[in-house]
Amino acid sequence: MRTPRPSPLPPNGGPTPEVDADADAGAPAVVVAGSEEPGGPSSDEGAGPGGHDHGDPADHARLRSANRPGVPWTRMLFIGAVCFAVWLLLDAPSLQHSATVSPVGSRRTVALDVVGPIAALSRTVGVSHVVGWTDQALGRPPGGGPSLALAVPGRAHRLPHPPAPVPSPAGPGAATGPTSTTTTTFPVLDQHPSGADPLRVLVVGDSIGIDLGQPLVNDLAATGVVAPVLDGRVDTGLSRPDYFDWPAELRVDMANDRPQLVVVMMGANDPQSLVDGAATTPYGTPEWNAAYGQRIGAFVDEANAAGAYVLWVGMPPMSGSELDGKMQVLNSVAQSEVAARPAGATYLSSTAVLGDGQGNYTAYLPNASGAEVNIRTPDGIHLAPGGGERLSQAVLAAMHSTLHIDLTG
């Protein structure tokens, strides 16, 4: 008996030949191929009573789809590389800025070496403006970290640059003595401000300074006898003027707002190498403490020279022992610099206000009625609204008891 030969494959799109699954186990396998009949489904020739219908058009479509070639992986890799290159070219100036303000070290150096040429190309061809326009449309500042400025109605328009120095009355070329001999007339803080003649107060600081500044501005404005202004800058401090220049910003604030009292709270971002042009001073050295103290002293002197008294608020206890130790060093330096200027500044410790009975970190403290109030955020660094308000009340109390300012109107 002759063994049946397999039928040839059908032309162009016909169903794939199949082995008849219903044949006897001992019989030779018979391969059959379906054929389409006009107007109806195809049938399996030679299939027995248990044969299956494989002529459904949906089956044909699935078979054609399975045989269709996909996108080669090399093309996908090429597309991904092009997209990455476009993004890198667009955002290179921002990456360069982030590398510039990162902690000084080999990682920063390598990042600047890699990103620098790409950022220069981005600026040359002009594509970096796309990111700038996007930031402007979204209300993001072009650099220097997010900012927050609050003021009472009627505040004067802010100057975009620090004011030019006032020429000496003696004329150019006249001899001038050292700045320490200059006599500055400080505002009389033993006063009774009124609605007609309010006390002008400027509050400046980093993100923790903003945590204090927002409730403090509200509390001061609620007195009706204070005109408060808040200039807060996230991720800033005195260590990195290459990222944000606080002394220059203070000169602008002093010229625009002419405050009689400046409340300062900053320092959480400062435990890092001090940058002064191309020179750096490593954190954790006696040279760093001395240089940082000079910057605090210069900041206070800047406000004093413009006729404002300074109330410097220290950093609060931190939940992490390492950061808490760093904040204690900063507070000690700030307190020493302020103590050296008793005629123009006062230091207010926040440890007694926001710490527990031993001055350590705590997330909750009881209020006047004995109820526990959340005073710190979950990160163990910033102030919760309850902590900001508690510290604001301590500032108001210091203004009354230490600076002898009557806020009752």
Report the CATH superfamily of the largest domain: SGNH hydrolase
Strand order of the largest sheet: 5-7-6-8-11-12
Rg for CA atoms: 37 Å
Q: In which range does the helix fraction lie?
A: 25-40%
Low-confidence stretches: 6-52, 138-145, 152-185
- The CATH topology of the largest domain comes to Rossmann fold
Mean of residue pLDDT values: 76
CATH class of the largest domain: Alpha Beta
SS class: alpha/beta
Taken in chain order, the helices and strands follow as EEEEHHHHEEHEHEEEHEHEHEEH
Main β-sheet description: 6 strands, mixed
Estimate what percentage of residues fall within beta strands. 5-15%
The second-level CATH architecture of the largest domain is: 3-Layer(aba) Sandwich
- Cα distance, first to last residue? 121 Å
Number of discrete helical segments:
10
Shape: globular
Counting structural domains, the number is 3
Counting DSSP E segments of at least 2 residues, the number of strands comes to: 14
Structure description:
The chain is α/β, with parallel strands linked by helices and 409 residues long. The chain folds into three domains: 18-67, no CATH class; 73-137, no CATH class; 147-162 and 184-401, SGNH hydrolase (Rossmann fold, 3-Layer(aba) Sandwich), CATH 3.40.50.1110. It contains ten helices and 14 strands. The protein has helices spanning 57-67, 73-100, 106-125, 128-137, 207-222, 246-257, 286-305, 321-339, 351-354, 385-401, and strands at 18-19, 31-32, 34-37, 40-44, 147-151, 199-205, 226-233, 261-265, 274-276, 279-281, 309-313, 345-348, 364-366, 372-374. The strands form five sheets. Strands 5-7-6-8-11-12 form a six-stranded mixed beta sheet, sandwiched between helices. Strands 1-2 form a two-stranded antiparallel ribbon. Helix 5 crosses helix 10 (385-401) and helix 6 (246-257) runs parallel beside helix 7. The model is unreliable at 6-52, 138-145 and 152-185 (pLDDT under 50).
